[in-house]
Amino acid sequence: MTNVLKFERVRLTQDDRDHRPGECTHHHLKLDSRGGIVSCVDCKTSLSTFWALTMLSEQYQLALANIDRLTARLTFADARLISLSAALDKRDCSGKGDSNNTKSPLD
After folding, report:
1. Among 56, 39, 61, which Cα is nearest to 48's?
2. Are 27 and 41 in contact (CB under 8 A)?
3. 100-103: long-range pairs with CB below 8 Å, 24+
4. CA atoms within a 13 Å half-sphere pointing along the CA-CB vector of 25
5. Which of 24, 44, 27, 46 shows the shortest CA–CA distance to 35?
6. Closest listed residue to residue 81, CA positions, set 71, 70, 89
7. Residue 38: exposed, middle, or buried by beta-carbon count in 10 A (0-12, 13-18, 19+)?
8. Domain boundaries, the chain
């Protein structure tokens, strides 16, 4: 049994990532309308048209979700501004007769 080789303990894992650090993400596309070729401007790789369509669709969905999120934040900010303005107006109206209330709210 002198022909037995000792192996160090090896751990195997499956890497299912779509993107690995250091690789190009192919976000700068060049479309050749005559040949129907899609290529990456950064790494000059020829890409599948279906992959490019899928990537653009995903980016479009992300952009729409971002617009929805920003619209919700803007609606909340508008409502908060109206609420704070109403509270300030109410405070100014209730304190009009006071001589101690001569300071501006910004002071």
Report:
1. 39
2. no
3. none
4. 6
5. 46
6. 89
7. buried
8. 29-90
Chain segment 30-42, per-residue pLDDT in tens: 988 888 899 988 8
Q: Are 24 and 40 in contact (CB under 8 A)?
A: yes
Pairwise CA distance, residues 91 & 81, whole Å = 15
DSSP symbol at 106:
T
Position 40: which residue type?
C
Length of the chain: 107
- For residue range 1-10, list pLDDT tens digits in order: 567 656 666 5
pTM of the model: 0.54
Say if residues 26 and 45 touch (Cβ distance below 8 Å).
Answer: yes
Count of alpha carbons within 13 angstroms of residue 38, beta-carbon side: 14
Backbone φ and ψ for 30, nearest 5 degrees, come out as -120, 125
pLDDT in tens, 50-89: 989 999 999 999 999 999 999 999 999 999 999 999 998 8
